[in-house]
Specification:
Layout: E1 5-9, H1 16-30, E2 35-40, H2 42-49, H3 53-57, E3 59-63, H4 74-79, H5 85-94, E4 100-103, H6 107-118, E5 128-133, E6 141-144, H7 154-171, E7 178-182, H8 193-203, E8 211-216, E9 228-230, H9 233-258, H10 262-282, E10 290-293, E11 298-301, H11 308-323, H12 326-347
Parallel strand pairs: 1-2, 1-4, 2-3, 4-11, 6-9, 7-8, 7-9
Antiparallel strand pairs: 5-6, 5-10, 10-11
Helix pairs in contact: 1-2, 1-11, 5-6, 7-8, 7-12, 9-10
Length: about 350
């Protein structure tokens, strides 16, 4: 296939143009076939692009006179889609000029713009925000929805399961991922009617390219027992923030403990290699790049505070999804699910 071409919202994120372009340059050094469309203020992009000659040779620049602030409401952002770096980056996906867009800007605005411009894939009612998180197992875990939809019915959850499994097969190279619903207990009778109905629907389709393993509790998400965790956006976002907060708490507690006395400082020196591994494992930059699954195009959301390494990782996620044609997999799996459902109904 042709080399992946990625649109970069150069004005998004806390680090601005310098960080976004440094991340793109790092991504290019890792994968020399990448090509970029840098969208933003040409006057701001030009001096930073001059610092990265290889990136300049692999990029085109599209001027955008405006950008979306972090505080801007989605409804306001939508009205300025045609003049902002975020809106024009998404428009490039819609027009087929690029295979994916990457932004570290306002999440709500990005979701609203992408959904309005790209629409959803056939058979998908709502897009979901998915991210990859570290575990104690051999593989990371895909979790969705992380905030795009506060309320979901059983059909939405089933669609999320299909999309999340396809994402795990692509991004994590897991041929037959294990999928679970986030619930307050592992027993089949636990949870809301939506969760119980979604579980019944998934159990009725055992031939799909993933294994539905029932429910998982929040304290087991990072244990590595499952590959995909499915929830509504309200519960998923709370679980995500709790996991991130716990990681920061443990890191800060260790830092405080190791500086409390001379003996503790000596213990820190002895434990430094192990603590380095812990820091690498918990660093959000190493798992940067959430994806809006279910859209008729690929849009990747980076942490606003991501550094160049984090931006490069988000671009790497986008490029892999373009290469592996994620949306084709989702469409095929969803088509299989709907065919099996129709056959089951016909047999009644």
């Amino acid at each position: 296939m042709d080399a992946p071409r990625i649109a970069i919202d150069a004005m998004g994120g806390d680090g601005g143009v310098a960080t976004m372009l440094a991340g793109a340059a790092l991504a290019l050094s890792r994968s020399s076939d990448l090509r970029f469309l840098l969208v933003g203020d040409e006057a701001a992009i030009a001096p930073e692009l001059a610092r990265h000659p290889a990136l300049a040779a692999a990029s085109d620049v599209r001027h955008a006179p405006d950008h979306i602030s972090g505080e801007e409401k989605p409804t306001q952002a939508i009205r300025r889609a045609k003049t902002t770096s975020m809106g024009l980056a998404i428009a490039a996906v819609k027009d087929g000029a690029v295979g994916a867009a990457v932004s570290a800007g306002n999440t709500g605005a990005l979701m609203a713009m992408a959904k309005l411009s790209l629409r959803t894939l056939p058979g998908i009612d709502r897009p979901a925000l998915a991210a990859i998180m570290p575990t104690l197992g051999d593989n990371d875990v895909v979790m969705l929805d992380l905030g795009a939809n506060t309320e979901c019915d059983a059909n939405n959850l089933v669609q999320f399961a299909v999309m999340g499994a396809a994402y795990a097969r692509t991004a994590l190279d897991i041929p037959h991922p294990k999928v679970a619903l986030l619930n307050i207990g592992t027993e089949a009778l636990k949870g809301t009617d939506e969760l119980k109905n979604a579980a019944a629907m998934l159990r009725a389709h055992p031939t799909l390219p993933f294994a539905f393993v029932g429910n998982v509790e929040a304290d087991r998400i990072n244990r590595g027992a499952v590959d995909v965790v499915v929830s509504d956006g309200f519960s998923g976002n709370i679980a995500l923030k709790a996991i991130e907060g716990t990681a920061r708490f443990v890191t800060d507690l260790l830092r405080r403990s190791f500086t409390s006395s001379f003996r503790s400082k000596m213990g820190f020196l002895l434990s430094k290699p192990a603590l380095h591994l812990l820091r690498v494992h918990l660093d959000p930059n190493n798992h940067n790049g959430a994806v809006f699954l279910g859209l008729n195009g690929i849009v990747v959301k980076s942490h606003g505070s991501a550094d160049a390494k984090g931006i490069a990782n988000a671009i790497g996620v986008a490029a892999k999804l373009v290469r592996d044609d994620l949306n084709r997999l989702i469409a095929e799996d969803l088509g299989d699910y709907r065919s099996q459902s129709a056959e089951s109904v016909a047999a009644l």
